């Protein structure tokens, strides 16, 4: 298991395919969780494992320090969500030079501050380890909870954009020198 970073309550680590598929399915099999993400809920643990495999292989090929990682609660060892730090895709799905921080949490973990805590850790990792100068977040306009997370992270609202993921999104940014 490769640990990426820790926070006070959380360990952020790479996904372990054989072990994590069931807990990942709790996140991505839930239509309420994925309604703000592009795509549809995973059908079952098997499709979830296949998705995790594609994801881990893609980031291993990139080998640039970015990723989509499991958020593990230290106290219980339970996966409560995903934190990502990756290149934003343009409307054709090709990587841009813009990097985003994002979070997906299972319903039972909503409202506990995990997204903010993991987001803060991912931002520090991006600025200190990857030496990024700017980190963005993109949020569907109706996702008020995630917009509040960007505010708690000190991100600056930049208005709406159609530049990424082929959908209209609220764009937020944080500069390394202004954090």
CATH architectural grouping: 3-Layer(aba) Sandwich
Can you list the strand order of the major beta sheet? Answer: 1-2-3-4-5
The run of helices and strands is EEHHHEEEHEHEE
**What structural category do the secondary elements indicate?**
alpha+beta
How many strands?
8
The proportion of residues forming helix, as a percent range, comes to 25-40%
Largest sheet: number of strands, sense, barrel closure: 5 strands, antiparallel
As for the number of domains, it is 1
Describe the structure.
With 179 residues, this protein is an alpha+beta fold. It has a single domain (3-178), classed as Gcn5-related N-acetyltransferase (GNAT) (Aminopeptidase). Helix content is 32%, strand content 31%. It is built from five helices and eight strands. The strands form two sheets. The protein has a five-stranded antiparallel β-sheet with strand order 1-2-3-4-5, sandwiched between helices. Strand 4 and strand 5 form a beta hairpin. Helix 1 packs across helix 3. The chain is globular and about 40 Å long. The relative contact order is 0.15.
């Amino acid at each position: 298991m490769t640990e990426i970073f820790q926070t006070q309550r959380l360990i952020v680590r790479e996904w372990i395919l054989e072990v994590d598929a069931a807990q990942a399915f709790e996140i991505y099999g839930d239509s309420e969780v994925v309604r703000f993400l592009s795509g549809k809920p995973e059908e079952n643990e098997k499709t979830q494992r296949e998705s995790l495999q594609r994801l881990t292989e893609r980031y291993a090929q990139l080998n640039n320090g970015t990723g989509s990682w499991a958020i593990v609660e230290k106290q219980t060892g339970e996966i409560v969500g995903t934190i990502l730090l990756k290149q934003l895709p343009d409307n054709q799905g090709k990587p841009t030079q813009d990097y985003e921080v994002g979070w997906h949490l299972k319903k039972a973990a909503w409202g506990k501050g995990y997204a903010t805590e993991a987001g803060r850790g991912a931002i520090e990792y991006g600025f200190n380890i990857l030496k990024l100068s700017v980190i963005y977040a993109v949020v569907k306009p109706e996702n008020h909870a995630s917009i509040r997370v960007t505010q708690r992270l000190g991100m600056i609202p930049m208005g709406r954009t159609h530049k990424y993921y082929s959908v209209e999104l609220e764009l937020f940014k944080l500069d390394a020198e202004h954090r």
